[in-house]
Write a structure and sequence with these properties.
By secondary structure, the protein is an alpha+beta fold. It is about 25% helix and about 25% strand. A six-stranded mixed sheet has the order 6-7-8-9-10-11, with helices on both faces. Strands 1, 2, 3, 4 and 5 form a five-stranded antiparallel sheet that branches. The protein is globular and about 65 Å long.
Length: about 300
């Protein structure tokens, strides 16, 4: 399950994808943007409209007031791998505690108008209740646009080009069909990336002790020689949710090691020494300068 709650609240935004098509214009058609969501977000929402930020189909997390017209912000071209450049500024107020409705009240869609009267009444009561200072506070700063990684390692150039070519095809269910499985992404991307970063075949194990990929500093392949663990997910799934699964493998291994979660295109490393906080990130199809740090950490010494 992907959640952008903290990002929305931190930067005072509401975001929508897909953004790879480019900005929405009145000449755009819905098929370009995988449905009507972007058009409605860009053209039908007005300043001072009330937005609700939900989790699942029963839970309300925050309520906001729209503070800007539609814009297309490249700072959000890679939000944990998702292109969410369609932007509205919003003054959000997090609820004192999440509100759980007794029945499903939200649709499982990216963006839609709320018709449920119980939700409407709750949101309007909140907006009209004191204190209302949050509705006029200055908007928080937007993140800066991260520059692209200009010096792509020569050993990775071919794999990066392959990722850029295949990612849009993977998303096209008409031309491609079902999205590739995690095993397919391991074969086509994860192992080639490790090989190109200097790891020999004998130090890369696939499905070792039920772990997707394990990289070893040397032989014999054992817990003591493990360098890091890679947990792979199906392409297009939220990799961030796989951290705890990867962590459980490390706990069972009995050796404190960093973990990497990936869908073949995106890679996020978590630091065992920092209670598995995010340490480094790279998106092969959209390389930014911080990706160099991940490659350096994954490189064979």
């Amino acid at each position: 399950m992907r959640s952008y709650t903290e990002l929305f609240l931190q930067h005072g935004v509401a975001l929508l994808g897909p953004g790879w098509v480019g900005p929405w214009t009145p000449e755009s058609n819905d098929e370009q943007f995988e449905g009507k969501f972007v058009r409605r977000f860009a053209s039908e929402v007005e300043v001072d409209d009330v937005l609700v930020l939900r989790r699942g189909i029963r839970t309300l997390v925050a309520i906001g007031v729209v503070a800007s017209n539609y814009s297309f912000d490249e700072a959000f071209d890679d939000v944990n791998g998702w292109d969410l450049q369609h932007t509205r500024r919003v003054r959000w107020s997090r609820l004192p505690e999440e509100h759980h409705f007794s029945r499903p009240v939200f649709r499982r869609v990216r963006f839609s108008r709320v018709w449920d009267q119980e939700v409407i009444d709750f949101a309007l009561r909140f907006v009209n209740s004191p204190p209302a200072t949050w509705q006029s506070t200055p908007l928080p700063d937007l993140p800066t646009v991260e520059p692209p990684l200009e010096d792509v390692p020569a050993s990775l150039a071919g794999l990066v080009a392959q990722a850029k070519d295949l990612q849009p095809l993977y998303w096209d269910s008409i031309r491609f069909g079902e999205r590739p499985t995690e095993d397919e992404m391991i074969v086509h991307f994860v192992v080639p990336l490790l090989r190109n970063l200097g790891w020999p075949a004998e130090q890369i194990a696939v499905q070792w002790r039920k772990m997707d990929v394990v990289v070893f500093n040397g032989l014999p392949r054992a817990a003591a020689t493990c360098r890091f663990v890679v947990e792979a997910k199906r392409f297009g799934e939220g990799i961030e949710g796989a951290r705890d699964q990867a962590r459980s493998y490390v706990d069972a291994l009995g050796a404190p090691r960093d973990v990497i979660v990936t869908d073949g295109i995106r890679y996020r490393m978590y630091a065992q020494a920092r209670n598995f906080e995010p340490l480094a990130y790279a998106n092969l199809a959209r390389l930014k300068r911080p990706a160099a740090d991940l490659f350096a950490r994954m490189q064979r010494p």
